[in-house]
From TrEMBL, chains A, B, C, D, E:
Belongs to the CorA metal ion transporter (MIT) (TC 1.A.35) family. Homopentamer. It is a multi-pass membrane protein. It holds the Pfam family MRS2-like. This is Magnesium transporter.
Length: 345, 345, 345, 345, 345
């Protein structure tokens, strides 16, 4: 345990019971059951802010169980000078309370500052419309940060609630002005024209509003995460639709090729077709296969175009089909196929 | 720093400490820790609205640190005349407060006006059912605007809260009526039949309601964004389903062609099938390949149609199949295939 | 401008300033800055309900700027008789206030009645499980209605808030009972056993509850839209899954056919395979191609069936394939294929 | 209309005006404008609970317009005995009020009991992970139930609000204790040690808490629906991903077969390749086609496996490719293809 | 039933009516209608916490209907010593109340501890980016836990509300201090410097805050579930997009192969093409088929790459196409095909 008098730092160890006797507190008051609490008891202010447990009396501030919590640095370097400075003409407990609340708000702010750029960066890279699939490691980071953010939100809320509970009851604020009750002489001296209770209210209100600002920022950040998730979904869906259309166009092409390739397969059969000897038929059939595939594909593509933009009154660009005589029966066939196709969709 | 007396503008520079002494304020009161605050101290009203910091006394209005913030134009052109005009018979601090609050509401309104058409335009074009994939640059704009909107919502909320805090406590309203306390003569003169505190309450309430309207508009806009996102998702999904059905129909066609193409491949093998010399067999098999593919495809398409609309009792349009004699065994085959196919799905 | 005395209608034009002087109001009171307001000033009730601006005095009701707003019909046909009727024994201002509030609630109700069937119809047709893709024009209608609905919700909320603000402060209710203050004789006469302020409170409360019911209905409608959107998404996703399974089954078929078609292609090569002269080999290979395809397809389908229902411990029903020598096996094969097809779906 | 005296049931018809005169109520009081209301007027309690309209006096309970609403059964069988029983030593109006509120809560509870198992069943079957596509009829049922649930939530909320409004104002509770005001003798007799107003408060509070429990259950149910919808979506998406992977694997197979089938097609051309006479070449090329397809497929599958599980450091199982000399140029080709493939992904 | 005096445990059975007479309670007070209630009646505190029903008097604590509820163990082992210990100098009812509330909070905490690791584990494994499809059994567990969590949230809320109702009314707190009213001697003795009501308030507040912490944890957990669901969806969508791109790339390959395979099919026809005798043509056409396929595929892949990353200004890596003379017409054809392809997308 440690003991801080107005500027001087003393460290010593004491049993809880001795401490209780010294300050005439009950053992129960030092149990620190809640993670965040701020109560006035018997001319002491007992504070717990997560890992920081402190007792403020009009003359000194005791910090309990401070080891191994990363607080030493702050205690030694920042707290002592802050307590020693006499910028306010206000008594000691105001300075102590301000230092502790400031430390709490700074901690919360630091946690938000930790989380915020990480979230913004991750979202920035996830929302990037160029990427096809979300980077999973980024998603993991986002999930971690989102969890930290909701823990931070809870802590800010708990901190705000504990301040609000005090602000709502004027008697508690009065009780917090220790000097007023213990040291009337100092009180009268220091309170020339200053109402201690009002000053205390202002001090607490100040930190309440700082916490509120933190809460607002956290809520905005959460809103941004939600919006970004929607945008990520729309992005992924859009990519998928584009790929699906490409896929569909290629499937159309493959279908056309397969359809007309069937002609080639037919002529490839070891069956007599009576055209075997005519040298021109080879080029005719080959040309027909390629041209027919291309044409059917074009029809299907334009059909797809019309289908996906149904509201534009579009003249279907009917290809001028002029065929040689000896293939008309096949044409009729394919035409009926596509007709039935379009009729049954 | 700048100094505005009832209509006349004076600019000069002063240290903060001098200012404090002059107005007998404490240094702490001029720290402007919160982005939006409105407090009465020692017959001064100290206001901060984001970048605008001002001190109102019964005789003059001082604007602090106004340079480089885009406020000069407003200060010179609008503020001076507004303060000089004597439309109300109310004292100076009312006019000053009204001018500053009006400026704040105007700023918020301007931000909403900035964001609103951009959001509406972006949504309009994103919701367009004709487009297959969402334009990513539009999504980016939407995300930016959505972020601006939530910042605006926070600012409106903070502004409303700071006004509400004053409206809830009658003493603060009383304190804001500076003339009442400093200049009883002017007070009595001006307050013929007018209760200053009530007028102040009306003034603040007026701006509170304007902020509330802004908040309502922003919330509606957010609701519209959410609804539009749902519609965008339904649109994209619908497109995908349509494309998938087309794809499925083509896959069915390809399957049919491949199935019957196998016959052609079989006859194309360099193996003796004893049909090689019959010239009619070529046409028979070719015709069977094309007809069979078409038929199977048609059956599959009608099957798909029934499958996707299961509740409509539809007579399956059985195709009139009239075949040549020597292929009946194959026909039976395919018929049983498709029958069992349709029965088992 | 228009002037309504107890039943008689008079229309005339007046400047705002004259009106102010006549009623000894301040110019500011007639600015009607907020879309919905209800205030008592100097024995007048000044009301604005969106487009309707009115001033109620104990003797008459003046409606301002009524032209071109679609209000004429209501003013002439409904308002005059309503004001003239003496069903209550209550003074004039009660009747006037009731008429205006009733008109407001009717307007809101009419807007809800406008929007509600349209939304229900659109949802009904969008939720229809038979449709494969959402009708985009319906989605557009839904979006429009959803926007109208949220505007309506805001208006109901604003109306409720302005009534609630009055109901919360008894002095304002007292002020609204104009006759009590201006005409003590009429007051005493009319108030035999009736407390004016209480009647006023009942009247306002009545409309507050009507507005609350409207708000409840609107919220239910919004909930219905959200639920329906979820159902639409599930529907579209289900359709997609069904189509994807069909697609996968056909892809399996195509794969099998391609795999065994490769045998045919191999034998189609202009390479000597030493089987060229054996007539039975043609039928053997052809049969093997079709049988093999069918079998592989069957295996794949049953694999798919097992894969999609992983929790059912299923013995893979290995088909006992025993074949005849010639062509009957093709029939059996395809038949068994389709059987297995039906069993595994 | 009907008339119930302490246990005896009398039915008769009366005009509204007669009823008003009899009970010295105003016509307005019997308009029953709101779906749920509970007011005390002139020593009567006027109650409307949806379809049930009743007037309670210290001596009797009148139920109005009870025909055709499914209430007869309850009125005759349950209400009369309940009113007649003297378990409480409390006056009649307590019993009447308790009977009516109990009936209301029972109705709400019955509606919840109706909806709850249906929702749970539907969700149970929709969440079933084995099903591939959501059953649309189930979705329809879910939508209907969800609508009923939100109506029920609104009714519970309205009921709670109307009770809460009474509980918040002690005067209304006093007014509801009719006997206290009308029958001081009975009052004094019955109130030995019992405070009527307190009893009334307890009675109302009791039903308020029952309504609250109903509201909690309804909210839990809504939460369950939301969670289940998420699970349904994840299920459908998972199924789709599994099918898509299968599809992709088969597409890989088809691609491999097509690639190496091209070799067969090439050798099938009626062009001289100088290999025509070598009998071993047939087996070499055929074997190469099948082996090559299989190998490429394997490579693609392992590539897919690596691609989908990128974080596992996996040694790519390089197939031992040992090729014959005269095909190396094709190998190089396919190798470069797959290289470029993997590089461009 | 059971009877616990200050440390000693007595079990006996009693009728409810006898109990009522003994404690001079009304039968109604022992109905325990609500799942959670805490009321003071006639110098008894009647408590129900779900399955635990207890009556506290200044001298003893009776637990009712305790059998078969899993409470025996707690009653015998923990409750008796807790009641017997005299750590507080506070009267018996404080110890009894503290024991029961502590038991309730412990039960809630135990339920949260049950649910929390299960949810975290399930989410951990579901969010894992490596898995392609969500494990459905895990989803089922998640759904169950989510249901337990919302039931827990409701219970915590009900518990908090019942404590808050007492904390809000000072008279109820006074009533809860039984000793103050029944045993003034003990009261005076024990209350040296201690205000009983204040102690009671502190005691209740302590448990209220513990319940609040539980509620906060549950809410964080729910938020985590929601966030994780979003991440799961993005993961599944990403996987799908990756697979779809692979599929598209393979479809492109298949298309290219089919396109150029058509040349092979054409040459495979039993038609005279005049090239039959030239041995070089075989290699030329075969090479052209493979090279052409590869090239077209490469073009399509680079087209896809450009399409999916539209914002990068990329020089399309035009492949140096140098063809032999006699195939240019086919090239033109395919080029026009791909041109039209790119133009119509």
């Amino acid at each position: 345990m440690k003991f801080d008098q107005e500027g001087n730092v003393t460290t010593f160890e004491k049993k809880k019971t001795e401490l209780c006797q010294e300050l005439s507190l009950q053992a129960r008051d030092l149990r620190f059951q809640h993670s965040t609490s701020l109560t006035a008891r018997n001319n002491c202010i007992i504070i717990r802010m997560e890992s920081l447990k402190a007792i403020v009396t009009p003359e000194h501030l005791s910090v309990l169980d401070f080891r191994g919590l990363g607080l030493e640095r702050w205690l030694v370097l920042d707290l002592a000078p802050q307590l020693a400075s006499h910028t306010h003409s206000l008594p000691f407990e105001f300075r102590a309370l301000e230092a502790i609340l400031q430390h709490k708000v700074n901690t919360l702010q630091a946690r938000l500052n930790d989380v915020e750029p990480s979230i913004l960066d991750t979202l920035e890279s996830l929302v990037d419309p160029k990427i096809l699939s979300a980077d999973r490691s980024k998603l993991h980071i986002l999930l971690q940060n989102s969890k930290s953010l909701s823990e931070l939100e809870t802590d800010v809320k708990v901190f705000k609630d504990s301040l609000l509970k005090i602000l709502d009851e004027d008697e508690i604020i009065e009780e917090l002005c220790l000097t007023k009750w213990t040291d009337p002489r100092v009180f009268e001296e220091s309170s020339l024209g200053i109402d201690h209770a009002e000053e205390m209210e202002l001090l607490l209100e100040n930190y309440y509003m700082q916490a509120e600002e933190l809460g607002n920022k956290a809520r905005e950040l959460r809103g941004l995460i939600d919006d970004s998730e929607s945008v990520i979904f729309i992005n992924l869906d859009s990519h998928r639709n584009v790929m699906m259309r490409l896929n569909l166009q290629l499937t159309m092409g493959s279908f056309s090729l397969t359809l007309f390739g069937l002609i080639g397969v037919a002529f490839g059969m070891n069956l007599t077709s009576s055209f075997e000897e005519d040298p021109r038929v080879f080029w005719l059939v080959t040309g027909f296969m390629f041209l027919g595939s291309g044409m059917i594909w074009r029809r299907l593509l334009s059909f797809l175009g019309r289908h996906l933009e149904p509201s534009i009154p579009s003249l279907p660009s009917l290809p001028n089909i002029t065929f040689l005589n000896d293939k008309t029966h096949v044409i009729c066939n394919t035409r009926s196929v596509t007709n039935c196709h379009s009729s049954c969709l």
